[in-house]
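Hi R.,

Here's the chain you asked about this morning:
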Amino acid sequence: MGLFDRFKREKEKPGAQGVPGGRGTEEPLLEIARIISAGDGTVLETVKGCMDDPAGYFEAHRETYAERSVDDPGDPALVQWLALVDILEEHGYVCERDWKDEKPDFLYFLRGLRGIERLNLEVDGDWLEEDGDVQAWCDAVTEKWEPRQCRVAAIGIDSDSYVLFPCTEGERERLGALADRLGQTID
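And here is the predicted structure, written out as tokens:
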């Protein structure tokens, strides 16, 4: 039985949970991926694959983990959390920005996120102070988006970089609660 066959059968069941592209997964990591990616099936299948075999996923992506100074798949939760970030970034749903990012780069990467289009948001460079930093720029953008109840949120990865994405305030609250269940942060 192939991966797609299993999902097809689960999808046919009434009330199936954890189905890529479906709603209401039982797994917090998969639900986070679903919310941020707006149910992107490719993202969900890849995250599910990592959840099913974190050690295998680690081995297949050893170089990416080495760039994050993770040399050992001994902590499956960490392997999965970092995989989530990398998968979402690969598909254009989040961007990872260094704490000392420059304004043009910040604007370029934030504007390119798929959630900006999904939520029909604008990112205007005039909103940002030239000598500001990532935190100040996120605050300025969030302030401008406040009437639309949207914000820039960040996935915590215990690093000096920010993993940023746009979301609604309701999504952010749900994501924060799900991340907390995993001992992680989204704020």
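One quick note: The two ends are 39 Å apart (CA to CA).

Cheers,
M.
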